[in-house]
Amino acid sequence: MRILALLGVSLLAACGWQLQGTTRLPEVMAVAYIDTNDRYTDFNRALRDRLRASGVRLVDSPSEASAIVRIRRDESGQRVLSVSARNTPQEYEVFYAVEYSVDGQEGELLEPQTLEVTRDYSYDVNTVLAKQREQVILRDALARDLAGLVVRRLASL
To answer: Domain holding 84: CATH number?
Structure first.
């Protein structure tokens, strides 16, 4: 039994598989301030969580920070993808878009970047409440995905 377990671990290690961990950020991101118009969006909360998980100390004043993450645009919504013969929506696309940049003490570290992610879902007029909940869940997942993308880009500084 031990040999099988050892063989399994060896195979996983040989193929490059590893547990998903936190992203290592450069020293310039050790103390950060997030400059945004709305601190309560799904993206802002997800970005703060991701940065903290990566070891970043978030401060309340830009003068205390070694890096300032500026959220220039943070918007989400949905668009109709398809309609039925009766002209009722059958499929929607949920989108989340952000534009951000990063400034350091010496100047701009990362020029303005725009990211947008989308997901679609089918719509049924008989299950309106469930579909509204699905939209909220999708929007939250998109915000988390965007926060992960931003943190991975910050790791390249």
So the answer is: 3.30.160.150
pLDDT tens track for 102-150: 999 889 999 999 999 999 999 888 888 888 999 999 999 999 999 999 9
The secondary structure element, H or E, covering residue 150 is: helix 128-154
From CA 106, how far away is CA 104, in angstroms rounded? 5
Please state the domain count of the chain.
1
Cβ(61)–Cβ(31) below 8 Å:
no
Residue 11 resides in a domain: no
pLDDT digits (tens, 9 = 90+) for 35-46: 999 999 999 999
User: DSSP letter at 155?
Assistant: T
DSSP string, 38-73: -TTSHHHHHHHHHHHHTTPEE-S-GGG-SEEEEEEE
Residue 3 has pLDDT above 80, yes or no: no
Domain contains 51: yes
Q: What's the pTM?
A: 0.81
Q: Which of 38, 32, 42 is nearest to 117 (CA)?
A: 42
Separation between Cα atoms, residue 96 and residue 100, nearest integer Å: 13
